[in-house]
Every structure is written in C-alpha cells, then in structure tokens.
C-alpha cells in the first residue's frame, strides 16, 4: 500500500521514481487488539494519507488505539521544541506510539509516581496486573535543521534520554525504534548535478538539538498517556488514562 502511494505521489509531481523503499513500523498491541484479524489494510492506509493534517488527535487513536504504556493506556503523542542557531529558528518535532514500561517504574516530571499509581489501581480493584518492561515505542523525529546523516543519528539517539526520564530502561522485551529525518538539504531527483552543496550545523551547537530531542520525546510520551481514554482489554481488564489518576490526585490534594 505504501509503495503504491509513493509511486502515485511521485507521478503527480511529474517524477519517475527509480527506487521505492517504504519504512513501516509496528507495535504489538495484542492485549487490547486481536492482531490476527489484521484490521488495518490498504483502505485504512490511504485514508490516513488523505486525512493527514497539521492538527490531529492524540491518545488512543489510529496506531495508538491498542497500545499500553506503564500499565496504563498509551497511544499517539507529539511535542516539539524550537531552537535558535545562527539567528534562525529551527523546529524539532517528535511523534510517538507509546507501548512500553512497567507501572512501578513510571516517573512523572521527576517524581517516581509508579508505586502510587499501583496503590491507586488496587483501590479501584484494577484487574490489569503490573508487568515487567516489555512492548515497544515507535518514535519519529522530524526537523528542518540542516544536519549530516551522522549528526541526525546523534540527535535521534537523544530521544532515548526522554524515554529514560519517564522511567524506561529498555527492558529485555522492549523494543525502542527511532526514525528521524530532516527536510533541509533537498536533493534533486535528476542526475544533472555533479556536485551538491550541503549545509550542516557545526558540532559546538549540537547540544541545543540534543536537549530539544530529549524534552520533546518525554513530553510526547506524557501527552500520549494523558490524551488516551480508559480502554478495556480483551480479557476484561481496564487500562486507565493517566489523566484519570492526575484528576483523582488533584481532588485528594485539594481536600
């Protein structure tokens, strides 16, 4: 499906694609979704492309409908940071599909709230047991910052810092997948050019991008959890939204 869409878009732009290399990621959401049914097909993929927009829903939507994060409902989350280099502003944006982590390890803004959430879930007679860190998180980093492929890979690795800030430690059964791209340095599709001029930031300013990537990843994960709604698993267990816990804690604090 993806290869066909790429070919069609190239043809609409008057281009003749010489090589198609689709990149597709996945997360195992079998605790909520019956994966054997393969509910997503070419129709759904095309619909996603046709309805793509700058503003979009987060939480338990699309690929995030069946994901679980830190024993609570995960999903789709996004965040971005703007950095200034050479008197120009550049954006580093992150989109995640959160599906990892054990409840007891969860850290929220530097506070180890995992044990408190376990107590809160027990008070609600929650059937969803806390499991060890397993699953996956898909992270996509997009930027207009001019960087080399090596620099982009270095920036992309810092999304792992954002994951760690929420309590993740890349457990044995957890697969962290990070994909990144930059829209700077457009490469002509033809073969007329024999030399290309490529812009790239100097190494001494790259820390700004590192920090932005880490912060955006952390925020995107939290956004995916707070935007998600309570969902029931295939065996009847409930996966609560982080927003529910935060609301209950706020009420308790205000008493």
Task: Give a brief outline of the structure.
It contains 7 helices and 10 strands. The chain has helices at residues 2-12, 42-50, 114-123, 149-157, 159-165, 206-227, 242-254, and strands spanning 68-69, 72-73, 76-85, 88-99, 107-108, 111-112, 134-143, 173-182, 231-232, 238-239.
Query: How large is the radius of gyration?
Result: 20 Å
Structural class: alpha+beta
N- to C-terminal distance: 54 Å
Q: CATH topology, what is it called? A: L-amino peptidase D-ALA esterase/amidase
Helix count, DSSP H or I runs of 4 or more residues: 7
- Written as H for each helix and E for each strand, in order along the chain, the element string is HHEEEEEEHEHHEHEEH
Mean pLDDT: 91
CATH homologous superfamily name? Answer: L-amino peptidase D-ALA esterase/amidase
Which CATH class applies here? Alpha Beta
Number of E-state strands: 10
Shape: globular
Largest sheet: 4 strands, mixed
What is the name of the CATH architecture?
4-Layer Sandwich
List the uncertain runs.
none
């Amino acid at each position: 499906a993806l290869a066909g869409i790429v070919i069609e878009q190239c043809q609409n732009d008057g281009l003749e694609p010489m090589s198609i290399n689709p990149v597709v990621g996945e997360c195992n959401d079998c605790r909520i979704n019956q994966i054997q049914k393969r509910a997503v097909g070419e129709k759904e993929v095309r619909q996603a492309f046709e309805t793509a927009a700058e503003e979009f829903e987060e939480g338990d939507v699309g690929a995030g409908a069946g994901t679980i994060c830190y024993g609570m409902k995960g999903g789709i989350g996004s965040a971005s940071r703007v950095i200034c280099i050479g008197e120009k502003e550049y954006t580093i944006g992150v989109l995640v599909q959160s599906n990892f982590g054990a409840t007891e390890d969860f850290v929220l803004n530097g506070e180890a709230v995992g044990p408190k959430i376990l107590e809160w879930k027990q008070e609600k007679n929650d059937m969803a047991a806390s499991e060890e860190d397993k699953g996956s998180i898909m992270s996509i980093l997009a930027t207009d910052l001019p960087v080399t492929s090596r620099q982009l890979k270095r920036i992309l690795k810092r999304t792992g810092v954002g994951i760690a800030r929420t309590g993740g430690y890349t457990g044995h059964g957890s697969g962290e997948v990070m994909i990144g791209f930059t829209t700077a340095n457009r490469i002509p599709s033809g073969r007329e050019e024999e030399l290309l001029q490529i812009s790239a930031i100097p190494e001494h300013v790259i820390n700004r991008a590192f920090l932005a990537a880490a912060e955006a990843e952390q925020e995107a994960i939290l956004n995916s959890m707070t935007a998600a709604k309570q969902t029931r698993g295939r065996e009847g267990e409930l996966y609560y939204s982080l927003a529910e816990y935060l609301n209950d804690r706020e009420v308790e604090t205000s008493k």
